[in-house]
């Protein structure tokens, strides 16, 4: 017998956590989550297509979907004032029973109604800080999502939100580590270039750095890139640095 609520079994088995730990990055996690969401929330006689949109500060929108049809709809949601954006802004679920009879979000409706998906359910995902996210469900049939379906999707989204917050925190730590490694590499290359200038010009470290910085400004070249070219010229090869993970 098919389990009518596979997401409950998934919670018991730690499947949401496995999705986070088994994914290479946030995008991969969101794709796996979208596929699992579609499988869990589909009706026996009516498939559900799922999209997940994540908006992070100073980053392009991250969209992951269970199907290409959901990707088209999610991309349109991000292009216009849309049910997804309303759900994220108001932190409440937004149901569109029949897209062909919907008069809110006119630009989105005009573009989305040509895609053959008629019923939409957009559920916000609870994340932290300036990040916003939503679980977007689509069906080919009008009135596909009843009140019980909405409640079930909201419970599912509540559990998925916890996994998403963990995935975003892991990604944030990874980004911070990568930024630090890049800064250390940049600093090392600059120090090597300063040393080369000191040796060639018989000057102090401060004077050598001033020479490097002035040349960078005059040539409109980033300090690190100019330092790399100096070291390459001195050593007749590209400078590489290594840091232990």
Short structural summary:
The protein is an alpha+beta fold and 245 residues long.
Commentary on this structure:
With 245 residues, the chain is α+β, with helices and mostly antiparallel strands. The protein folds into two domains: 6-175, 2-Layer Sandwich (Beta-Lactamase); 177-235, Arc Repressor Mutant, subunit A, CATH 1.10.10. It is built from nine helices and five strands, in the order H-H-H-E-E-H-H-E-H-E-E-H-H-H. It has a five-stranded antiparallel beta sheet with strand order 2-1-5-4-3, with helices on both faces. The chain is elongated, with a radius of gyration of 25 Å. Mean pLDDT is 80; it is low at 237-245.
Helical/strand content category: alpha+beta
Q: Care to count the β-strands?
A: 5
Alpha plus pi helix count: 9
Low-confidence stretches: 237-245
List keywords for this structure.
57% helix, alpha+beta, 245 residues, 5-stranded antiparallel β-sheet, Beta-Lactamase, disordered C terminus, Arc Repressor Mutant, subunit A, 2 domains
How are the SSEs ordered, and which strands pair?
Layout: H1 6-12, H2 15-21, H3 26-41, E1 49-55, E2 62-65, H4 68-79, H5 83-90, E3 94-96, H6 106-112, E4 119-125, E5 132-139, H7 147-201, H8 205-219, H9 223-235
Antiparallel strand pairs: 1-2, 1-5, 3-4, 4-5
């Amino acid at each position: 017998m098919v389990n009518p609520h596979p997401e409950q079994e998934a919670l018991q088995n730690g499947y949401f956590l496995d999705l986070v730990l088994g994914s290479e990055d946030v995008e991969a996690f969101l794709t796996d989550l979208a596929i699992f969401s579609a499988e869990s929330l589909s009706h026996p006689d009516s498939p559900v297509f799922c999209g997940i949109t994540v908006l992070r500060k100073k980053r392009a929108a991250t969209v992951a979907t269970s199907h290409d049809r959901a990707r088209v709809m999610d991309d349109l949601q991000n292009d216009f004032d849309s049910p997804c954006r309303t759900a994220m802004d108001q932190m409440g679920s937004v149901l569109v029973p029949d897209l062909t009879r919907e008069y809110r979000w006119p630009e989105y409706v005009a573009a989305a109604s040509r895609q053959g998906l008629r019923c939409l359910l957009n559920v916000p995902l609870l994340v932290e800080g300036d990040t916003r996210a939503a679980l977007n469900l689509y069906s080919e049939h009008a009135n596909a999502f009843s009140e019980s379906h909405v409640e079930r999707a909201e419970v599912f989204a509540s559990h998925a939100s916890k996994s998403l917050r963990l995935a975003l925190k892991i990604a944030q730590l990874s980004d911070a580590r990568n930024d630090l490694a890049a800064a250390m590499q940049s600093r090392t290359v600059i120090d090597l270039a300063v040393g080369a200038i000191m040796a060639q010009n018989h000057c102090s470290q401060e004077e050598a750095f001033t020479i490097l910085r002035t040349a960078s400004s005059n040539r409109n070249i980033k300090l690190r890139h100019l330092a790399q070219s100096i070291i390459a010229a001195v050593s007749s090869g590209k400078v590489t640095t290594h840091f232990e993970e």
